[in-house]
Task: structure prediction
Amino acid sequence: DTVNYNFPLDDAWPVEIENNTFAGRRLAAGTCVGDEPRHLFRACTKSRCFGDCPSSSTKCEMSVSSVSLKFSYVPLPARPSGSVPEKVYFTMRLFLTASGKSANNGSVLKGRKTMIRLIASDIDGTLIRDGSHHINQEYMQVISALKKKGVRFCACSGRQYSSILHLFAPIADDIYFISENGTVLRTKDKVLHTWAISEDYIRPLMEDLRKIDGIEVGFCTPDVTYTEGGEDTALFKLLRDGYKYDVEAVPDLLELPLDNICKITIYHESDAEGMCAPIYNSDWMNKLRITCSGKCWVDICAMEAGKGEAYALLQEYLDIPKEETVYFGDNMNDLTAFDETGVSYTVANARSEVQDSADIVMGSFSHDGVLTALKTILIAL
Result:
């Protein structure tokens, strides 16, 4: 038979549903994603059965005004007298509201609201098109409204700080910044922490990178990015004109002071990850964090640095527990931040690995999926 749960969305927010026991049945575990409104919510279930429990699919129906989750049950095989009782215990976490309500089979849904005090979001591919410098200004209004409700916001990106600052100029005084793929944590007025690459690694790594034809390399400090080959290279023009970086062209990157390089960025016009296969398949993976940040970018930083590490440090700085945080991201360099947040969101255009790792899948950046989620959060506060 089928048990139906209906959750109104007028006060939507994470709820934990636990300690439900169903004699003689087992839960068909799975993940459901609604189609309306554009993957706004994802429900994840985990089941544990006494005996074999072959997996099955969970069906989900979603509308704008309510969510109907249908869980199918099947009888367990008969057991000898004195064996383990035919029961199923399951814990289900829904990103919807339900607290102290009864389902139509008499089971009580025991839930609690989760306070949200900090939200961080990636930029390229999550809020805007990769390399764009145009953002929907409604984001500024919603982030400001969230701040009035006590929710902090952090722009978290592989971009340079000055590039992020240009995008969020109207609210720059009120937000936090994680730049250069998690190697710089700061406010508008103060650098809170930086992570630099060991000088011992930079020269031999650059020698290996120079063996790869077709890529361009940039050295990033907290304030300036340096490139080789003059101002006519594709990398220099993209950083200066597209991303609005503070960028300088130098004859030889290895002639720069190497004590403040927080990130080495690798650019290829269509497949940076594929072009960097010699690096991914080398011992550098055991020495440095090497991450794909988009189809054109691979970023290299210290092993102890990354978006997740920076986000965790910001939570510590603000004295906000992980459970009261949210993170939005779309690419592989966001996965460490998913590990350091209470609820992880991604967008429909994200890589499949990221969608599989996220708690909730929103509409794509082109449909302002994150903006929709922020508005939903704001309404629920």
Observations:
- The longest helix spans residues 307-318.
